[in-house]
Amino acid sequence: MSKYAIVGALEGIGHEILDIMEADGIKAADVLAVDVNAPLGTQVSYGEDDELDVHGLESFDFSQVDIAIFATTAEVAKRFISKALKAGVKTVDASGAYFSDSDVPMIIAGVNDEEINTAKKGLVSIPSAAVTQLLIPLKAINEKYKIKRLVVNGYISTSVYGKEAMDELFNQTRRIFMNESLVDHQKVFNKQIAFNVIPQAGEFIGDETSWEWAVNAETKKILNGNVKVHANFAVIPTFIGLAEYVNVECEEEIDADEARKLMKTTEGVVVFDKTVDGGYVTMVDVQGEDDIYISRIRQDVSVENGISFWCVADNLHSGAAKNAYQVMKAFQTQETVH
Q1: pLDDT above 50 for 133
Q2: Which spans in the chain are helix H?
Q3: Within this chain, do residues 122 and 162 fall inside the same structural domain, yes or no?
Q4: Mean pLDDT confidence for 85-99
Q5: Do 32 and 66 touch, CB atoms closer than 8 A?
Q6: Taking CA atoms, which of 49, 88, 194, 321 is between 20 and 30 Å from 82?
Q7: Which range marks the domain in which residue 246 is found?
């Protein structure tokens, strides 16, 4: 029986991974929760009945486990993944720390699983939730019509920045209703987040933010092609979820009705697209859901061979944790390439 380490177990994605593992029948005795900041005695829930002791990452012995997921910051992953690999542990990196390493394939379960076979270091990575949410619905469309250009307008929730950011949204909203000052209540965001939209997701890298850069670079890495990508991302005053408006230009002529049919046959995708008031899915509708929801599929007549659609998912659960767990299960069965 395999033993698993979930590194970053106290963070949002790590906790979601634990919930998915418990629901899939993995016993608590086979799971070790690990976190970089875990005082002695810290525990994390595992399903409704179990609690896991949280081990400190600095002193954790990776030889106890067979496979690990790093749901941490890139800085933590860069420091400690090498320790796991030296212990012979197959590792899934959810931080993006090894994006530029050609020997570390980036995987979306159900999209490019075969790339797991190219993992030469016992290490694979997964993309950001935004790219997982984008490319799963487009898998069949890309195979049949060959995508040449994507324009992605994304709207991310405060959960991307962690609990402190969600608390900032809550506290600012409360203070506004109480007619209290917001002075000293802007710590995570550079602008007020309550009742506002901030056109910056992540740090700036030249003209792009880190989220925009990641969507561009990760999409190209996974599709292994010359697809052109332009991404715009903003943070909106919501707690959980990720929404994207996507314009797709293909090499072959594509019809919106055909795109709808292909998306309906894609595992993990739900098409709810009715041209009536409320005939679409919003961010608050998908919290805790496994699937990616598609609405507003239309012909994009501004380009040849174009469509557009609206896409929402729970960024923590569906966009990141579910993919990390599915990739880990697939990686378990593969022989590491040397």
Answers
A1: yes
A2: 12-23, 74-86, 129-145, 163-177, 210-223, 256-264, 323-332
A3: no
A4: 94
A5: no
A6: 321
A7: 131-315
Residue 133, SS3?
Answer: helix
pLDDT digits (tens, 9 = 90+) for 196-219: 999 999 999 999 999 999 999 999
Residue with tokens 């033993």: 3
Q: Which of 168, 166, 162, 8 is nearest to 81 (CA)?
A: 8
CA-to-CA distance for 133 and 310, rounded, in angstroms? 11
Which two tokens mark 267? Answer: 């595992």
Over the stretch 266-288, which tens digit does the pLDDT of each residue have?
Answer: 999 999 999 999 999 999 999 98
Residue 300 per-residue DSSP state: -
Number of Cβ within 10 Å of residue 28's Cβ equals 16
Instruction: Give domain status of residue 337, yes or no.
Output: no
Three-state DSSP state, 272: coil
Could you tell me if 122 and 88 are in contact, meaning their C-beta atoms sit under 8 angstroms apart? yes
- The half-sphere exposure of 336 on its side-chain side, counting CA atoms within 13 A, is 16
- What does residue 146 show for φ and ψ, rounded to 5 degrees? 60, 100
> What are the structure tokens assigned to 237, written together?
């005053």
Under 8 Å between Cβ of 15 and 32: no
Domain count, the chain: 2
